[in-house]
Amino acid sequence: MKKFLFLVTLMSLSVLYGCSNATGKGGAGSDGGNVVVGITQDLDSLDPHVAVAAGTDEILFNIFEGLVKVDEYGNVNPAVAESYVLSDDAMKYTFTLRDNVLFHNGDAVKAEDVVYSLKRCAGFQDAYDPSVSVESAFSVISEIYSPDEKTVVIELNTANTELIYYLTCAIIPKGYDKQATDPIGTGPFKFSSYTPLKSFVMERFEDYWGTKPALQKVTFNIYANSDAALPELMAGNIDIMTALENDVAAQLKDNYNIEYANYNLVQALFLNNDFEPFKNPDVRKALCMAVDRDQINNMISDGHGSLIGSGVFPGLSAIFAKDLVNYYPYDPDAAKELLKNAGYADGFSFTITIPSSYTPHVHSGEVIVENLKKIGVTAKIELIEWSSWLTDVYQGRKYEATVIGLDANLAPGDILKRYRSTAKNNFINFTSEAFDTAYANGINAKTIDEKAVYYKECQKILTENAASVYIQDPAQITVVKKGLTGYTPYPVYVLDMSKIHYEK
After folding, report:
1. Could you tell me if 37 and 239 are in contact, meaning their C-beta atoms sit under 8 angstroms apart?
2. The pairing of beta strand 34-39 with beta strand 240-241
3. Which 3 state secondary structure label does DSSP give 81?
4. What is the CATH number of the domain that holds 136?
5. What is the dihedral of CA 369, 370, 373, 377, to 10 degrees?
6. Residues 6 or more apart from 195 whose CB is under 8 A from it?
7. Is residue 225 a contact partner of residue 357, using CB atoms and an 8 Å limit?
8. Distance CA 496, CA 490 (A)
9. pTM (two decimals)
10. What is the CA radius of gyration of the chain?
11. Residue 308 maps to a domain
């Protein structure tokens, strides 16, 4: 058996740190300090097991914790659990719970809370809730139980060394039925208030088991997009805001530090493979050659993004297929020839549905529209609300194309699992028996080197079939008001406010 006091990710990840030379009030560990964070996406649920939007996870990371949690280096470290043992056959995980972990209502975390939370996320019948977004990775679990008050055991029906990355799922009180309106977790901050489309407020949890945050209160103000937030940024009414474009951030350099980091997203023009003419691989390939990815990268983030050629971002360096980045060079003439051979010499028309709250994706779509005109293809942008995008595009698959960025858990296969033919979140309707086989082999492999072989094969299949037009891992541009420090980019989509503090 292998015993882990802390867990290190299989990926090698580079991290950029925020810094500031300005002076301000307060300091690390001080009792004062409130900050306002600007965000451009409303929360889709306050219940962590129901929420599916990455922007919601970004905030709820501060409220909830799992048995383990990810840090800024990509390590998976103890949280509600202090350690775990993985059996030699990778068929059983045994967790020892940490002492003195409290929920935000003051109740001590018990093994039964952990078992309930995991069963709820896994869709087990004795904790089934139809509103929960069941984690498909938990399908390998056969049983979850607690032999005593300090131990939780997870038994599997097949060997799986990647499950630990999914055990960041939130531990919540058993039987508590108000998570959707008054969420309770174990994180460094506790819920204070929420006004839809306006704000989400959280306060420091004074009885947190770990290092308490310096900040007393954090208010997330919700804006329609970054353009709507610009006047507030110019006035200094927002302390931190991420997901900005370079030209916006440049206007703020007098009062803010500008931080660049990897977003760890797969941005693409995602194509509905069930829509005609995208059923034709040659049409999809033509679009891949017609989109100028460098132009998008330069416009959105002054060239700080990283180009990709398939469905994995470069931060997952152990499995990232570098050789696919330039598989489809920008070549409008070759694209037109492909369209002609596919029977579309006169082009065609389609709609790109984009959530209006994501200005970088909207502007990327505008570049794509202009690029496609050069090959005789007419694309029209349709802007919709984020909630509508989730229901119509992501869940309902009622769309032709979209521009969005997809995030992932750090489990090596997580970013790719959505392309399985049977995956509920396979919103592009991609099907390939070869992909399904390669993915299954990757999941079953026990070493990262073995996994890399199969996951790179998956990427090659996506690229050769032009599943979508893969563009880049965009640069994450964040502005932090001078006088604040501790902003720390993560290799997953979170905004850790526990590290933020005013400089002394």
Report:
1. yes
2. parallel
3. strand
4. 3.90.76.10
5. -10
6. none
7. yes
8. 8
9. 0.81
10. 23
11. yes
Q: How far is it, in rounded angstroms, from Cα 98 to Cα 203?
A: 23
Backbone angles phi, psi at 441, to 5 degrees: -65, -35
392/388 Cα distance (integer angstroms): 6
From the list 474, 493, 475, 473, the residue with the least C-alpha distance to 39 is: 493
CATH number, domain containing residue 348: 3.10.105.10
Would you say residue 293 lies in a domain?
Answer: yes
Shared domain check, 292 and 178? no
- 114 in a structural domain: yes
Tell me the mean pLDDT per 10 residues along the chain, length 504: 46 29 36 89 96 92 97 92 95 97 98 98 93 93 98 95 95 96 98 97 98 97 92 97 89 95 93 97 98 95 93 93 98 98 97 94 97 98 96 97 93 95 96 97 90 98 98 95 95 92 91
Q: Is 56 helix (H, G, I), strand (E, B) or coil?
A: helix
Q: Which of 266, 256, 312, 272 is nearest to 293 (CA)?
A: 266
- Strand ranges for 108-233 from DSSP E: 141-148, 151-156, 189-195, 199-204, 217-222
Given this model, what pLDDT does residue 102 score?
98
> How many residues are given for the chain?
504
Query: Is 224:357 a contact under the CB 8 Å cutoff?
Result: yes
Of 448, 416, 493, the closest CA to residue 70 belongs to: 493
**Cα separation, 453 vs 346, whole angstroms:** 41
The pLDDT assigned to 450 comes to: 94
Question: Contact 311/324 with Cβ under 8 angstroms?
Answer: no
- What residues make up the domain containing 277? 266-473
Phi, psi angle pair for 86, to nearest 5°: -105, 125
Whole-angstrom Cα distance, residue 21 to residue 66?
35
DSSP lists the bridge partners of residue 193 as: 201
Among 501, 494, 500, 502, which residue's Cα sits nearest to residue 242?
494
Q: What's the token pair of residue 38?
A: 């600007």
Which pLDDT score is estimated for 16?
26
CA distances (Å), origin 5, targets 38, 44, 83, 167, 281: 36, 34, 5, 15, 48
- Whether 210 maps to a domain, the answer reads no
Write down the H helix ranges in 251-306: 281-290, 293-301
Same domain, 177 and 273: no
Which among 156, 183, 210 is the end of a domain? 183
CB count, 10 Å around CB of 370? Answer: 12
Q: Is the same domain home to 312 and 440?
A: yes
